[in-house]
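Technical annex B. To support the medicinal chemistry partners, we prepared a structural model of the target in complex with nicotinamide-adenine-dinucleotide, based solely on the information shown next.
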Amino acid sequence: MSRILVTGGAGFIASDVAAKLASDPGNEVVVVDNLLTGEPAKIPEGVRFIKCDANDFDDISGVFYAYRFDYVFHYAAVVGVKRTTDNPVMVLRDIDGIRNILDLSKNTGVRRVLFSSSSEVYGEPVEIPRTSGPRH
Ligand SMILES: NC(=O)c1ccc[n+]([C@@H]2O[C@H](COP(=O)([O-])OP(=O)(O)OC[C@H]3O[C@@H](n4cnc5c(N)ncnc54)[C@H](O)[C@@H]3O)[C@@H](O)[C@H]2O)c1
C-alpha cells in the first residue's frame, strides 16, 4: 500500500491525477486544497480530503506527520496570468509552499516528490502546434 499526497486536488490537473491514483487499490490517496480556486465537486471519489493551506507550515505539517506519505504530487498554486498579476504577493507565497513540501518530505521519509512546472517556461509559441522545448 502506497500513501500518496496530492496538493491542489480540487483543481483542474490535480483532481485528475488524484482520480487516476485512487483508481489503484494499492494506493491510499489524501488530497489537500485551500479551495482558493478549487471546487469541492472536483475532488474525486475514494480519496480523503483535508482543507489545508500548503503555504502555511503549521497547517500542512500536521498532515505530513499524521500520514507519513510515500509519494507527494504538488500542484497547489495560484494559477492564471490575471490572477498572478493582480496578486503578486500571494504568488510569491507559493515559494513557501514548495519549501514546506520539500522540507516536510525530506523529514518524514517521502520517497519521491513530483511537481508541475508552468507552461510559461515555453514562452510565446513560434509555431502552432508547438515543437520547441522550454527556454533555459
Ligand atoms: N493548466 C495548465 O495547462 C498547466 C500547465 C502547466 C503547469 N500547470 C501547473 O499545474 C499546477 C496546477 O494548475 P491547474 O491548472 O490545475 O490550476 P487550478 O487553479 O485548477 O488548481 C490549483 C489548485 O490549488 C489550490 N491551491 C492554491 N493555492 C493553494 C495553497 N496554498 N494550498 C492548498 N491549495 C491551494 C486551488 O484551490 C486549486 O484547487 C500549477 O502549478 C500550474 O502552474 C498547469
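Notes passed to the chemistry partners:
Residues 7-8, 10-14, 32-38, 53-55, 75-79, 97, 116-119 surround nicotinamide-adenine-dinucleotide (CB under 6 Å).
Residues 94-108 form the longest helix (15 residues).
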